[in-house]
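Late entry, written up from scratch paper. The run itself happened at the end of the previous shift, but nothing got recorded in the book at the time, so transcribing now.
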Amino acid sequence: MLAIFLADMNIEMNSAQRIRFCLLDYGLYVAVLLVMAIYLSTSLAIILSSLLCFMWLLAGEFKALPDVVLKNPVTGWALLLFLWFILGLSYTSVSYDVALSMVMKYRELFFIPVFTAFLSATKAQTWVWRAFIIASLVILAISYLMQAGLIAANNQGAFAFKSRITHSIYISFFAFFCAHKAYQGQSHVKLYWLMALISVYNLFFVVDARTGQLTMLILALLFGFQRFSKNALIIGVLALAVLLGLFLNFSDKAARINRGIVSTQAYLQAHPEKSEFSMGERLTFWKYSAKLIAEKPLLGQGTGSYRQEYERIARSEHLVSNNPHNEFLMVTVQLGGVGLLIYCCFLGSQLYVAKRLPDQEKWLAQGLLVSLVVTSLFNSPLMDHGEGHWFAMMIALCFASLQTDFKERTHA
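Output as recorded:
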């Protein structure tokens, strides 16, 4: 009887393992579709990310969270920041519904360990990187078709499928990725250089988004540090400075950058009537955000409180703000210095953990971190749906290989 009981238990355990592996395998296909959806459909991205979370729970992967966090501390800091947003519900000044809505906007932090579970296999990482390439090429093609007048421009008047900021974040990193693949010198070198070139051209001469342009410039410098010798780096920096100077002084496509500079100067010289452009608005948001932080520097105003508290202290302004267009300030206003420390640790952990990766993966992880930091200075990417889902997926992808061969790398 005991032998029969043990045999039945073994069958049940094997059956549970088969179900788990089946869910993880099918989850890979959902992850590939999710990458495409992030670029093309907000509704579909919500459905697919929710489906992945359900499959993650059903497969019992939550039991492996301690091991995931141990091998990849980036996931641990992401979870801690998400939990701190939940803790912020307990002392927020706004209604529970408003605060809970803000927690849901930061659910992408929870998605990072969830996505990681489906990307630990090398095959999965390869497939998702290919989906990333295809999706990037699709939105580039749409952008150029919009410029040619074959497809109507978006509701912002920009030649981008989504907002110009979102588009530029995606494409600046894609250009950086293609440059690394081309410089690697294995296969399709010319094709990768071509894709990098059309991406850079798209950023500066088609979709004039300053966030993406600045990100691209810093990524270009990072690429030089990663790949060039000292002398080649100096030549590269000089060439980049010359090209940037020519662009700013002789191209009509630099108009938005120049307006941003003028608007910033006007704001700093106390001429608010001249600072109606977005940089002037951002500086106003930042000023009042700093005042809110000064009121409650340790724990902040509570989750979801930004808009209500901003309106309370900025009644004399004609600008209504849902966020300060700065992730560091957005986190600190709500969660205080403790929340800011956790967010900085989340960023710092990516830099630290990237050292464990092989050069190619390490360089891409560093580039993704640069993209997140630059974007966080001028926007709230983790709160925004498109950017939040994209960064969650790309962070999981860049660090997923730690789940498969962590021990070999750390003990090598």
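The first helix runs from residue 2 to 40.
(Scratch paper discarded after transcription.)
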